């Protein structure tokens, strides 16, 4: 829309109240045209717009280029990481073997001890249980026997 | 097929030459609007730049069958409102704007003297307008948009545009036409 060739369609479209403001409208138009009507944006504006627009368009095209350049680097990184992991695992396994060899008897002894104590406890419980059973059974038997031996 | 629609189709296809053609078609009008609203050359250029960047990002959603002028003005008016809210230097920019407003056409000594009187009168009148009223005045009197187009640009009913314009023009009329200092200026303006 060219402001220098301003049509009067605004006033034509507007309500009748606006037609009484012709002088006011002319004053405003004259004032604005004389101040800003001849001003133009600097040529740098378009170059800045173009730069920003191209920046916005780059993210869509960036991934293919990065994926193209990434495989060699990724392969090297992966190889280095895998090597470090293997070395660490190997060293760790050696350490574990030594430690387990040292600790194994202790652990076994402790396990045996615990097993033995468990067995002893269980045995005692079984024995005490059986004793208690043996103790109780006569009572019941006695009762039963007594009942059974009652003269009919 | 309209010129704007052809440009929109080409821009959607990634044609930056079409986008440049769109820029050169509307840059002056949009720049004048931003400058009239903000009164700041640097801000107007910044708003013009942001306007076209946003327009390019939203070009897929625009209705290309109509003129793009209201759509672009809607973007730049919204950006101007954000700028005015963010910068909060409206009174300062308004003074600078009125300075240029008056100093522009007057080159002879008598015009300078008359302009200084007009300067004070217009400053008082325009300073009394709110941002929304000022935008309506610029779009209606300066850019010549229809009321329905202004309603679209401001995203409000036509009745709201009319009421804002009525209040703005009423305030300006009361302050300017009642001022005896403007009697000679009105003759010069016509």
What do these coordinates show?
- The complex is a heterodimer of chains A (152) and B (190).
- With 152 residues, chain A is an all-alpha fold.
- Chain A is 86% helix and 0% strand.
- Chain A contains 4 helices and no strands.
- The longest helix of chain A is centred in the middle third of the chain and has 105 residues.
- The N terminus and C terminus of chain A are likely disordered.
- With 190 residues, chain B is mainly α.
- In chain B, 78% of the residues lie in helices and 0% in strands.
- In chain B, helix 2 crosses helix 4 and helix 7 packs across helix 9.
- The longest helix of chain B is centred in the N-terminal third of the chain and has 23 residues.
- Chain B is elongated, with a radius of gyration of 18 Å.
- About 3% of the residues of chain B have low confidence.
- Chains A and B meet through helix 1, helix 3 and helix 4 of A and helix 2, helix 3, helix 5, helix 7 and helix 9 of B.
Low-confidence stretches of chain B: 104-109
What is the total tally of β strands of chain A? 0
**Average of the residue pLDDT scores of chain B:** 80
Mean pLDDT of chain A: 61
Report the β-strand fraction of chain B as a percent range: under 5%
Computed over alpha carbons, the radius of gyration of chain B is 18 Å
Shape of chain B: elongated
């Amino acid at each position: 829309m060219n402001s220098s060739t301003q049509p009067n369609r605004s006033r034509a479209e507007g309500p009748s109240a606006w037609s009484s403001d012709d002088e006011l409208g002319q004053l405003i138009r004259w004032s604005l045209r004389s101040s800003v009507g001849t001003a133009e944006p600097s040529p740098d504006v378009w170059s800045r717009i173009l730069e920003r627009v191209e920046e916005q368009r780059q993210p869509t095209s960036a991934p293919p280029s990065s994926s193209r350049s990434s495989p060699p680097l990724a392969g090297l990184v992966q190889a280095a990481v895998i090597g470090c992991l293997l070395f660490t695992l190997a060293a760790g396994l050696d350490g574990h073997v030594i430690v387990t060899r040292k600790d194994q008897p202790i652990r076994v002894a402790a396990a045996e001890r615990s097993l033995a104590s468990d067995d002893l406890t269980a045995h005692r419980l079984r024995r005490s249980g059986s004793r208690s059973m043996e103790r109780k059974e006569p009572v019941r038997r006695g009762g039963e026997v007594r009942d059974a031996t009652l003269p009919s | 097929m309209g010129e704007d629609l052809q440009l929109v189709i080409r821009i959607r296809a990634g044609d930056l030459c079409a986008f440049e053609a769109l820029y050169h078609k509307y840059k002056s009008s949009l720049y004048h609007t931003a400058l009239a609203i903000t009164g700041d050359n640097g801000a107007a250029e910044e708003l013009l730049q942001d306007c076209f960047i946003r327009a390019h990002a939203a070009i897929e959603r625009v209705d290309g069958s109509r003129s793009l002028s209201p759509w672009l003005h809607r973007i730049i008016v919204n950006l101007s409102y954000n700028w005015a809210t963010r910068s909060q230097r409206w009174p300062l920019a308004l003074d600078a704007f009125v300075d240029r407003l008056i100093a522009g056409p007057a080159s002879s000594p008598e015009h300078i003297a008359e302009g200084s009187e007009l300067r004070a009168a217009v400053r008082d009148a325009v300073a009394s307008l709110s941002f929304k009223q000022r935008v309506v005045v610029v779009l209606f009197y300066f850019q010549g948009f229809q009321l329905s187009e202004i309603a679209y640009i401001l995203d409000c009913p036509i009745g709201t545009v009319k009421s804002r314009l009525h209040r703005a023009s009423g305030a300006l009329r009361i302050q300017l036409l009642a001022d005896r200092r403007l009697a000679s200026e009105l003759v010069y303006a016509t």
